[in-house]
Amino acid sequence: MTIKVDLLPTEKKRFGIDPVMIFLVLVIILFTAGFFVYGKSLENQIAKRQEEVTAIDTKINEVRSKLPGIAKMKEENAKLEQQIATIKGLKNDPVRYANLLWELSEVLPANVYVSSINIEPAQQSVVLNGSALQIGTYRPLESIAIMMRSLQTSRYFRDATLAATTQSKTEKGLAYTFQIETHYDQDAALKAPDQIAPPAASPAPGTEPAPGAAPPGAAPPGAAPAPEAPGASPAAPEAPGASPAAPEASPAPSGSPAPGAEKSGALPMDGKVGDLR
Q1: Domain identity same for 86 and 109
Q2: How far apart are CA 29 and CA 35, in angstroms?
Q3: Which residue, 28, 52, 97, 179, could crosslink 163 as a Cys pair with Cβ 3.0–4.6 Å?
Q4: Which residue, among 130, 189, 180, 121, has the nearest Cα to 154 in the 3D structure?
């Protein structure tokens, strides 16, 4: 049996490196480094935005804490502006409003009471709210009609419109609540009442003389003449049974109404006007 032994040294094998593997490893390293840097940049941006959000939230909270004070200041400013506007509107109008209120007190019948007066300078309008009571011979609806007619022929007011009326019962009896709207002449309202000629008073209903009626002071048809004073020339003999005519009434003084005559409006005013309430 033969055993062969190789005593020659063996050749060392070389270890080969694949270039593709090297390229892949480098690419992986580069991408990893890029992602790391990009991640750090995003973290910095996020932290910066969070700081900005925190600062904005702080400002919002500060503003919210001031909102009640701001709302209160707005309300005070609105009140001041309203007061300033009112003062500006009243600066040149005290005489005008005083004349309007005086005229309203003059046209109110005795049984009419005003609860509120709303004056609108822009529209030159006046809205009256009130009630007319049934007091004795004073009739509410007739009193309202008289007041509207008086407004239409007033020194300062031009028209009168009945917006609403409602019947109601009160402790004092039957009443009618009303709302009347009228307009005034702002130029005429600046003048005193004695500087404006009063409007011609229209005859009250039922005061016109009937057709064919004799003038005041004339003797009625068929009445005998009045007896003559002593020393006067003789007159014609009186008819048998005829009664002597009543002596003529002395004329009333100029500028004063005749005795028993009522004011225009067919309702007695008792020498006064209604209270302005």
Answers
A1: no
A2: 10
A3: 179
A4: 189
CA distances, 141 to each of 65, 109, 144, 174, 196 (Å) = 60, 11, 5, 11, 30
Write down which residue in 91, 107, 124 finishes a domain: 91
Q: What is the pLDDT of residues 72-85, one digit of tens each?
A: 999 999 999 988 87
Q: Is residue 137 part of a domain?
A: yes
Domain end residue (candidates: 64, 91, 118): 91
Evaluate whether residue 186 is within a structural domain: yes
What is the DSSP-derived secondary structure letter of residue 156? S
> Residue 180 phi/psi, 5° resolution?
-120, 135
Looking at the structure, tell me whether residues 110 and 183 fall in a common domain.
Answer: yes
Same domain (yes/no): 125, 103: yes
**Residue 38 pLDDT exceeds 60:** yes
Q: Is the pTM of this model over 0.70?
A: no
Contact 113, 104 (CB under 8 A): no
How many helices and strands (H and E) does the chain possess? 3, 4
Question: Distance of CA 228 to CAs 125, 241, 242, 245, 262, Å?
Answer: 63, 18, 15, 11, 34
Range of the domain at 113: 96-195
CB atoms within 10 A of CB 151: 23
Q: Which residues contact 90 (CB under 8 A, 6 or more apart)?
A: 97
pLDDT higher than 70, residue 18: yes
Question: Chain centroid to CA 40: how far?
Answer: 69
What letter does residue 226 receive in the DSSP assignment?
P
How many angstroms separate the Cα of 54 from the Cα of each of 45, 46, 47, 156, 260?
14, 12, 10, 68, 92
